[in-house]
Amino acid sequence: MATTESSSDAGSIDESELKEAGPNSCTVRALTEVMTVLDSIGRARNADDLFLVNSGSGSEYLVDTRTGSCECKWKQYNPSEECKHIKRVAFATGERPIPQWVDDDALDDQFGLHVEGEPRKAVADGGVMQVRFDDGGVTDPKEDPLAVTSEDEPRTKRAKQEDIDVSFLAKPGRYEVHSASDSCYEVDVLEETCSCPDEAERCKHRRRVEIEIEAQRVPRPDGKLPNA
Question: What is the DSSP letter of 140?
Fold first, then answer.
């Protein structure tokens, strides 16, 4: 798992960034410590400004981005400053770009997996780029069919981000989809149906199957291999 970088490993950090890049800074801990940011679940359900942050120790904190509040004790003792949980939400949702000086290998690999936001990273020319994290590394959106883009709808983002396994079931056009929750559904791309309970016109399972077919990661609807 990712570890906190020391200031001596920071490489190209500007002098003005040294304080922010210190090994014990809230920013570095927000980026490298094991945390999971969740929206639309539990106390954060149906509230755009609320997020649950689960730490590696098993603690859970509610972050309110509208008021800038967090339930953690550190925030209670430092009410005028941002705690690592508030910062993590900002980085995970893409509201704040990840600083350029951060080593990609040190980042926690849970970024953006359970929120609708898109992590971004500052680049040398002063702009930002959208990124997708895979096993702690950054993947190129142009080369990765599962990279999230700003044009993606929420269900498409989930279809790309969640741990979903697609396998060909039967022709013509039937696929088996195993979700991150261990559920199994059947998608028929010709009938445009899915056995999941989602009542949306195109659920995330159908979208994921379509993405994998287009990327030639699974057999075509006629059962033939992509290169056949």
Answer: P
Report in angstroms the alpha-carbon separations of 88 from 58, 60, 70, 191, 205.
16, 13, 12, 41, 28
Residue 157 sits at the vertex; the CA angle it makes with 30 and 83, to the nearest 5 degrees, is 15
Output the CA angle 205-207-213, nearest 5 degrees.
105
pLDDT: is 126 or 69 the higher one?
69
Query: Taking the CB of residue 138, how many other CB atoms lie within 10 A of it?
Result: 19
- Tokens 């992590």 locate to 119
- Within 68-119, where are the H helices? 73-77, 84-92
Mean per-residue pLDDT for 76-84? 93
Contact present, 121 and 96 (Cβ < 8 Å) = no
Query: What pLDDT is recorded for position 41?
Result: 81
Max CA-CA distance within the chain? 64
Strand order across the 35-38 sheet: 35-38, 50-55, 60-64, 69-70
Q: Where are the alpha helices (DSSP H) in 55-172?
A: 73-77, 84-92, 154-161
**What stretches of 33-83 show up as alpha helix (H) in DSSP?**
73-77
Q: Which residue has better confidence, 2 or 79?
A: 79
Cα–Cα distance list, 162 to 54, 142, 216 (Å): 17, 19, 19
Q: Please report, for residues 64, 80, 174, 202, 209, the alpha-carbon distance to residue 67 in angstroms, rounded to integers and kept in the order given.
A: 6, 12, 47, 35, 40
Record the tokens describing residue 203, joined without a space: 């659920």
Token pair listed for 116: 């609708």
One-letter amino acid identity for 162?
A: E
